[in-house]
Write a structure and sequence with these properties.
heterodimer; A: 269 residues; Spore Coat Polysaccharide Biosynthesis Protein SpsA, Chain A; B: 114 residues; 65% helix; elongated
Amino acid sequence: MTRGVVLFAHNNEQIDYVAQACFLAKRIKHFMDLPTTIVTDDKQRVLKYYNGANVFDNIIVSNPNIKNKKTYNDGSLSKKVLDFKNYNRSDVYDITPYDETLVMDTDYIISNNLLANCNHDLMLYKNSLDVSGWRDDSEFRLISETSIDFYWATVIFFRKTKENKMFFDLVKHIKENYAHYRLLYQITSTVFRNDYAFSIAAAIMKNVVDLPGKMVYTTARDILHKVADDELTMLVEKQDRVGEYTLLKSKGTNLHVMNKFSLNRMIQG
Amino acid sequence: MDERLSKALEFGNYSTTLENQKRMLHEKFITDTLYFFNGGQFSITKELINYVFVLQSTGQDTTVIVDDNNIPIQIENVEQFYSNIADKFFTATNEYHIQYEKLQSARSVDGLVK
C-alpha cells in the first residue's frame, strides 16, 4: 500500500505556485516522511529552475486549460486580479500514483505529522479556525447562508475505492455544470471554487469523515513574515484598523496561508 | 502623541497579541491531545481518562470505546490504552502550562512572540 502527497502547481503572471510546491514538498518530507508528486503544466520549468527531480517523487504534466479570474489580496491594503487555474483538482483520483493520497494546496504549510494519521477512505476538513479570532468566518461554515456545510478542498485524503471514484466523478460533473449547481445550492459567487464542488459532492454522497484537527488559516489580508522550522510568525489584520497588524506566532501547527504573495516573498528570502 | 494615549495603545496591542497567542496555544493543546489507535481518533479528555481508569480498575482487559467520529473501536488492552492516553495527556498539559507561563510572564509584544 503506497501513500504520498499530490500538489497542483500552475503558475500565473505573478504567483509562483511551483516554488510553493517545492517548499511544501521539503516540509512534507521533513515532518511526515512522505513522497510528493507535483502536477504542473510546465515540467521543464520545474526541472530547470527548481531542481524538481530531487524534490519530487513524480512530475505529472496536466494543463487545466480553463482559467478563472480571482482577486488576490496582499495584506489589507493591496489586491490584484490574476488568473487562477484550479480546474483539474478533481482529476487527482485518476492521476495519483499512490493507493492513499493526500492532496494539498501549495499554500498549506506543514509543521507537524498530524495528517499521517488519516485512516478513513475519504477525509476533508470541515472545522476551521481563523487565527485573527475576530473575523466573520460564516463563509467557511456553510457554502451559503441557507445551504449546506462548507468543506475545504485545501487538504483531501482519499483511498482508491469504487465509492471514491464515484465521488471524484461527481465533483467533475458538478464542475462541468457549475452554473446549475451554483443556483441549486444558493452560491452567490459566479467563480468556480473547488471548495464548493467538494462540499456539494460531500452533501450528496455523505461519505466524508473529518480530517484530524482543524483547518487553521490566515486570510490574504494577513501577512506571513517568517518560517523557522515549525515556528511561523505572521502579521494579522487588526480589528477595525485597516492596514494595521498584530504579531502572531504559531508553533507546530499546520497553517493555510492565503496571502500567496507573502508566502512567495518568504520562500524567496 | 500624548504619553497616556501612547501607553494605552501599546497596552492594547499587547493585550490583543496575548489573546491571539493564548488561542493558538490552546489550539495546539487540543491537537496534542488527539490520540490515534486502531483506526480511531480519540480526543483525550479528563472524562475519557477517568472512564478508562474505571474500566482498568474494575478488571476489564478489553472494551469498545466510541471515537470522535462516532465509530466504535475495539480496545484489546485497556491497561496499555490507559497508560498511553494518560501519558499523552500529561505531556500535552505540561507543555501547555510551560508555554502559558511564558506568555503570562512576557511584558511586551516582542516578548510574546519570542
